[in-house]
Amino acid sequence: MKFFRSMRILFLALALCAIPATSSAGVLISVSFAPPPLPVYVQPPCPEPGWMWTPGYWAYGPDGYYWVPGAWVPAPYIGALWTPGYWGWSTGFYVWHPGYWASNVGYYGGINYGFGYMGIGFIGGGWRGNAFYYNTAVMRVNNVYIHNTYIDRTIIRTHTIENVRRVSYNGGRGGIMHAPTARDRMVMRERHMGRTSFQTQHVEAARSDRQAYFNNNHGRPDRVAVERPMMGPRNMHQSPNNTMRQAPRSTYNGRPQMNQRNMQQRPNFQNRPMPQQRTQPRPNTQYQQHPQQEMRPPRPEPRANPRYEQRPMPQMREQPRQQMREQPRPQSHPEPRGPRGGGRPR
């Protein structure tokens, strides 16, 4: 008995080594029983150009499986495509392989999530330069804001794996039997990018919702798909509205380049209340009526001081000036002259 137990642990360790590098960075989740079937739902229209559809899936939490609704999320960079995660059977356990962002869509267990992820690759659209074009044959978009669309129904059959029972796992008893191709293995070896902050908050909001657990909804969750990522109570101030209008260029060699400017968020003017019209003018406090003040009697005129009354003004003394004016000026007399001979008389 101990021998079989040790061999089982050894096989589990070998299976962990075979998991791609993208899932080794996160927390390994393995469950001994299969996840529930995928619910049927209608995809909401894409609200913003350049946003990608992330299909819903069953995640595992402290109280069992809970449903993470499908949602539109902004692409982290130009050329980014989302590869959804999947549950895979491995040596008696169902192991979760998380999704990732890359320049190509890789292997996701052959699970037919719908809406472009039909089991093999992705047929929901593609990048043409800096714009993403949506294949409206399998995608729903808001035609008011999104005009980059086309219709291609010829590739639906070649990329579709029939999944009538809505199975949500690969391998094992009753699972999808689809092995990765050589192209899928090549994409697995590329450098990937994990889920964005909006996706992480979306998962945390679903985990905190008690109605999302299978024990409460029995496979019929209330929120099956949402238009925008759900935000938890701690991150209500953040919103992905109008995010990723312009993203940095990608080298398309598995090494995406990030740009910090893409995380800047524009204010949302849709949820602001309209200003109310004023029907009555505001009272002007400057001209409000104040209580009248009591009239004070007029002040009596000041009494005249007899000491300073009828006092003659001092007269100016003009006599010296008159005397000086009356005195004649001295006259100058010419000196007497002598005879014609000149000189003074002797």
Quick structural overview:
The chain is built from six helices and 13 strands. The protein has helices at residues 2-18, 21-24, 182-188, 197-207, 214-217, 319-326; strands at residues 30-31, 51-54, 57-61, 64-68, 71-74, 81-83, 86-90, 93-97, 100-102, 125-128, 131-135, 149-150, 169-170.
Q: What features would you describe in this structure?
A:
This protein is an alpha+beta fold and 346 residues long. The chain has one domain. 15% of the residues lie in helices and 14% in strands. It is built from 6 helices and 13 strands. The protein has helices at 2-18, 21-24, 182-188, 197-207, 214-217, 319-326; strands at 30-31, 51-54, 57-61, 64-68, 71-74, 81-83, 86-90, 93-97, 100-102, 125-128, 131-135, 149-150, 169-170. Strands 1-8-7-13 form a 4-stranded mixed sheet, with no helix packed on it. The protein has a 3-stranded mixed sheet with strand order 10-11-12, with no helix packed on it. The termini are far apart. The relative contact order is 0.15. The model is unreliable at 1-26, 234-238 and 242-267 (pLDDT under 50).
